[in-house]
Amino acid sequence: MTATIRLMPRGDNVAGNLMIRLPASEVVSTTLVVSSDTRDLPTLASVERIVDRLAGFGLVLADPGEGDRIARLVNKRFLPVPQENWEDQELSLKVVRASGEGEPEALRAVAALRVPVLNATDVVLRHGGAYGPVERRANEIRLVDELRQAVTTRKPVWVRFGGQALRFVATTVLTQLVDQLVGIPITDIIRSTLRGAGELSL
Asked: 189: number of CA atoms within 13 Å, CB side?
């Protein structure tokens, strides 16, 4: 299946014939202070927000390479361009519908992880070079705690459909974001939270 996303300077969020219109101002992270150690975060955050919008329609990227294509579009057509000069962009993506047994539940479990990750990313980017070690540590602790809570709240889903949920995680950039933010693989956080609840495997 192919979905075409259209990133628009202004627009509504409509799905029709798998043409999904996304207001660029809501998914592209640009009005941020970026320091040398956070230079990849605006791109990653933008990709993840687009992945999140696709997930809202029950769609996941067919493979991680599709995320790279989104990143190239964001890096070339949006981040280096003043927002007032943005133009509509279209990109056809290979996607699959999450409609098999447990897949909708697994997709919602991944969405619950996405919320604290993007919130923590925004905290870092708002502070940029002024982000000190105390603030950084507090953000790291808060993120890990909120990820654990997100997993615990949906523990039955993770126990039953955890393998599927981890496969969905692999089609996002959550792993890269969490690695940059706390230096711990998100899968380790998930597994340690579920320790004793059963094996998970990609």
From this structure: 25
Report whether pLDDT(202) > 60.
no
* Per-residue pLDDT tens digits for 122-140: 998 887 656 678 888 999 9
- Given a cut of 80, whether residue 166 has pLDDT beyond it is yes
pLDDT in tens, 100-118: 899 999 999 999 999 999 9
Dihedral pair phi/psi, residue 135, rounded to 5°: -65, -40
pTM of the model: 0.83
CB of 167 within 8 A of CB of 200? no
16 DSSP β-pair partners: 19
CA 145-148-152 angle, to 5 degrees, is: 135
DSSP the chain: -EEEEEEESS----EETTEEEEEHHHH---SS---GGGTTHHHHHHHHHHHHHHHHTTEEESSHHHHHHHHHHHHHHTTTS-GGG---EEEEEEEEE--STTHHHHHHHHHHHHHHHHHHHHHHHHHGGG--HHHHHHHHHHHHHHHHHHHHHTHHHHHHHHHHHHHHHTTSSHHHHHHHHHSS-HHHHHHHHTTTS-----
DSSP codes joined into one string, 36-75: GGGTTHHHHHHHHHHHHHHHHTTEEESSHHHHHHHHHHHH
Q: Which of 25-29, 41-45, 103-107, 145-149 has the lowest mean pLDDT?
A: 25-29
